[in-house]
Task: inverse folding
């Protein structure tokens, strides 16, 4: 446990799981949650009750599928990583003018807790005239500055660059960055109306940490790529230079794939061996959607994957250019 005790020196809370069981809780997270007067066993019991889960494996599932939770008017952000057999969850308290105790009315705070009035209040107080915006088209990040045209409690209107119009073909979402140094100052909203480059945006929620720093391409494969597991082919949902996600049809498929530490990627009639590290399972509309892995490859496989990504990126960039001109 001496290795884990190093986590006690961090300014953030840490809980470590192995096989969905808690093996370490840092002192800092107990302090933040006001559970430092209890033994770690009893603190864990109280934490489960606070989050309305009964067992440690359910606590693991909760942390794996949530980005935030609330406790005693504190909003705690969850970040998940994996190191060998261990799942490591890092907990950071969010200090942000948009997130305050008067917007927390239930125990659990979803990343889709809408904060329109708080966003408007912050923009007005700070007299912001422009912000950075980020959208995606087929995995390519499109990012630049936009002019703030109007701010109300119901919506914000922006004048964006023309290239963002192509993003509307896929999704009516836009991310606004108004403080690069603080990830909690990154919000995502729904584009409810667009007149040319004038976007009306509502339904803001806190964006996931670090998403605005993403520069690399993540390609949706649209049924073009598969992985081979136990002689069965599974469709790849999307792929990047460092990660891969796979479509799921059932909980049984998730259990099977979650155990995998390596697989074979079928790419352009070649079979590439890749190592996997489970990150998380993603749900959409309460239905299981995909499983995400970090991906490690040989130099040869890495080269093949990068060639595929570059080819796809060039195709998409040509499509964007044709859209604009």
Result:
């Amino acid at each position: 446990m001496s290795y884990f005790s190093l986590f006690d020196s961090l300014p953030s809370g840490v809980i470590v799981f192995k096989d969905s069981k808690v093996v370490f809780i840092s002192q800092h997270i107990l302090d933040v949650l006001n559970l430092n007067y209890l033994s770690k066993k009893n603190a864990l019991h109280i934490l489960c009750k606070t989050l309305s889960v009964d067992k440690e494996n359910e606590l693991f599932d909760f942390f794996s599928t949530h980005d935030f939770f609330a406790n005693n008017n504190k909003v705690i952000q969850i970040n998940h990583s994996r190191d060998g057999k261990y799942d490591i969850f890092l907990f950071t308290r969010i200090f942000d003018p948009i997130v305050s105790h008067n917007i927390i009315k239930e125990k659990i705070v979803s990343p889709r807790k809408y904060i329109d009035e708080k966003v408007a209040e912050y923009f007005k107080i700070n007299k912001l005239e422009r912000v950075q915006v980020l959208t995606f088209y087929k995995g390519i990040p499109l990012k630049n500055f936009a002019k703030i045209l109007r701010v109300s409690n119901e919506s914000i209107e922006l004048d964006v660059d023309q290239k963002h119009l192509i993003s509307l073909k896929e999704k009516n979402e836009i991310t606004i960055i108004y403080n690069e140094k603080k990830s909690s100052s990154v919000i995502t909203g729904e584009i409810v109306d667009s007149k040319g480059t004038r976007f009306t945006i509502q339904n803001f929620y806190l964006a996931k940490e670090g998403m605005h720093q993403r520069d690399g391409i993540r390609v949706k494969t649209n049924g073009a790529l598969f992985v081979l597991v136990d002689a069965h082919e599974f469709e790849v949902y999307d792929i990047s230079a460092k990660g891969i996600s796979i479509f799921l049809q059932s909980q049984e498929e998730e259990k099977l794939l979650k155990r995998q530490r390596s697989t074979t990627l079928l790419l352009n009639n070649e079979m590439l061996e890749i190592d996997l590290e489970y990150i998380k399972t993603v749900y959409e509309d309460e239905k299981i959607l995909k499983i995400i892995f970090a991906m490690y490859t040989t130099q040869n496989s890495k080269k093949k994957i990068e060639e595929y990504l570059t080819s796809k990126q060039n195709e998409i960039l040509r499509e964007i250019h044709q859209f604009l001109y």
Observations:
- The chain is about 25% helix and 40% strand.
- The chain has three domains: 2-93, 116-213, 219-324.
- The two ends are 60 Å apart (CA to CA).
- The first strand starts at residue 13 and ends at 18.
